[in-house]
Specification:
The protein has about 375 residues and is of the alpha/beta class. The chain is about 45% helix and about 15% strand. It has helices spanning about 20-25, 30-35, 45-65, 75-85, 95-105, 160-165, 170-180, 205-230, 235-240, 255-265, 275-305, 325-335, 350-360, 360-370, and strands at about 15, 115-125, 130-140, 145-155, 185-195, 200-205, 310, 315.
C-alpha cells in the first residue's frame, strides 16, 4: 500500500547522523520524505538482514566478553534463537542468517581484553546541533593503534583498500570515537566483511578528523539553508529526488514521484520489487549472451578486413605493448647501476600460491607474512552442485 504524501509542519531534525547525511547526499528528496515530512518508512530485505546479523554478532561478542572467553560455540544456538525472536521480520531469511552466523563464530576470536564497546551509541555537537552515531566495535590497544574502530559489513561486496582509506563513514566513526575519549592522536579504522572474513585497516589522522567535522558542518548548513528558500521554490525543488543505487532500499520507494515518472514515462528500469529483480537479471543474461555473440562476429570480420572506424571509435585489434625482462639479468643490471631491485620487483603470486598449497614450513612462513588482497567482482558464474 502506498504511503500518502500530505503536507505537514516542517521542522528540522533535533539531531543528525551519518545515515541521515548519507541519505541526503544520495537523494535529498528521500531525506525530506523521512526527516521533514515523516512519511512511513518501508523496510527492505537487505536492510532487515543487515540489522539482524549485526544484532547476532553483537550478542555473541558481548556474551564472550561477559564470560572472558575468546569463543563459546555452545552458546550459538541459544543466541541465535533469542535474536531471531526479536526480529520476526527476518523469518524468511532465517537459513541464510544461520549459515553466516555459524561462519562468523567459527572464524571469530573475541578480544575481550581490548574490546571496550559493542554497538556503542555516541553523541557530540557539530554546527550547534547533536550529531550521533553507533560504533559496531571500539577497541583500545597499545600503540601504534591505541584507538581502533571496527565497522562490520554483511553485504556481498568487499571494498578495496583505496575505498577503505577514503570511506566517509569510517572517518565519521573515527571522529566520534576520538571525541568521546578525548583522543588527540591517530585513530585506526577497520572494515570487516563478515561474509568472507576479510579485514581492511586504515588510519585517520587528527587533521583528517578535523576535516571530517568541517564536512559535516557544511552539509548540515546546506540542509538548513535549503529549507530557508521554501516557499520561494517548491519543497521538491529544494530537496530534489535523485534516483540511484539506493532506490531498492529507500523507505519511501513505493510513493516516490520521481521513480513513478521514470517507470511510467521514461521507461528506465529501477529495481524495487522481486519482479523487477528477476526482469533485470533476465535482461542482463540476454544482453551478455548477445554481446558475446556480436563480439565473436566482429572479431572474425576484423581479422580478415581490418578494424572498423566509425563515430570517433576504432573497433578491432590493437597492439598493447608488453615486455618480459629476465629476472637474473635484470637484477644484475639494476645493482650495477646502484638501484635496489627490491623497489621494482614484485613477487610472482602464482608461483607463491603453489608453494603455499604444497604445505610445510615454507608455506607456514609465507602465510605469516601475507596480507589479504581479496576483492569482489560483479559477474555471473555457474552455481555449483
Amino acid at each position: 500500500m502506498e504511503a500518502k504524501r500530505k503536507p505537514t509542519e516542517l521542522t528540522l531534525p533535533d539531531h543528525y547522523s551519518y545515515s541521515q547525511l548519507k541519505k541526503y547526499r544520495e537523494c535529498p528528496g528521500s531525506w525530506k520524505d523521512d526527516k521533514l515530512l515523516h512519511l512511513p518508512q518501508e523496510t527492505s530485505d537487505p536492510a532487515i538482514f543487515g540489522s539482524t546479523f549485526h544484532d547476532l554478532t553483537a550478542h555473541y561478542d558481548l556474551h564472550c566478553k561477559s564470560r572472558q572467553a575468546q569463543t563459546d560455540y555452545g552458546a550459538a544456538d541459544a543466541i541465535f534463537e533469542v535474536v531471531m525472536r526479536d526480529h520476526p521480520e527476518a523469518g524468511s531469511q532465517r537459513a541464510e542468517l544461520g549459515e553466516l552466523f555459524a561462519e562468523y563464530i567459527q572464524r571469530t576470536i573475541v578480544d575481550f581484553d581490548h574490546l571496550i564497546g559493542v554497538e556503542m551509541p555516541l553523541d557530540t555537537e557539530i554546527a550547534g546541533v547533536h550529531f550521533t552515531g553507533t560504533l559496531d566495535r571500539l577497541f583500545r590497544f597499545q600503540d601504534p593503534f591505541a584507538l581502533t574502530v571496527r565497522d562490520h559489513k554483511s553485504d556481498g561486496r568487499i571494498r578495496t583498500q583505496a575505498e577503505v582509506d577514503t570511506d566517509w563513514q569510517l572517518s565519521i566513526y573515527a571522529m566520534l570515537a576520538a571525541r568521546t575519549v578525548n583522543w588527540t592522536g591517530d585513530v585506526a579504522v577497520e572494515m570487516l566483511f563478515d561474509r568472507y572474513g576479510v579485514l581492511r585497516r586504515s588510519v585517520r589522522t587528527p587533521e583528517q578528523i578535523e576535516g571530517t567535522v568541517e564536512d559535516i558542518a557544511a552539509l548540515i548548513e546546506t540542509i538548513q539553508g535549503s529549507l530557508k528558500v521554501v516557499p520561494a521554490i517548491t519543497l521538491d525543488e529544494a530537496f530534489p529526488y535523485t534516483p540511484g543505487s539506493r532506490c531498492s532500499i529507500c523507505g519511501t520507494r513505493s510513493s516516490c514521484p520521481r521513480l513513478k515518472k521514470l517507470a511510467d514515462e521514461d521507461g528506465v528500469s529501477v529495481i524495487v520489487t522481486t519482479e523487477d529483480e528477476q526482469a533485470a537479471f533476465v535482461q542482463y543474461v540476454a544482453l551478455a549472451a548477445r554481446l558475446n555473440q556480436v563480439t565473436k562476429v566482429l572479431k572474425r570480420y576484423c581479422s580478415t578486413h581490418g578494424n572498423i572506424i566509425m563515430n570517433g571509435l576504432d573497433l578491432g585489434f590493437h597492439v598493447s605493448e608488453s615486455y618480459k625482462y629476465p629476472t637474473v639479468q635484470t637484477v644484475d643490471i639494476l645493482k650495477a647501476h646502484k638501484i635496489d631491485p627490491l623497489t621494482l620487483l614484485k613477487v610472482d603470486t602464482t608461483g607463491v600460491k603453489k608453494l603455499v598449497r604444497a604445505g610445510g614450513e615454507t608455506a607456514e612462513a609465507l602465510i605469516r607474512i601475507r596480507t589479504d588482497a581479496s576483492k569482489t567482482t560483479f559477474k555471473a558464474v555457474k552455481v555449483k552442485g
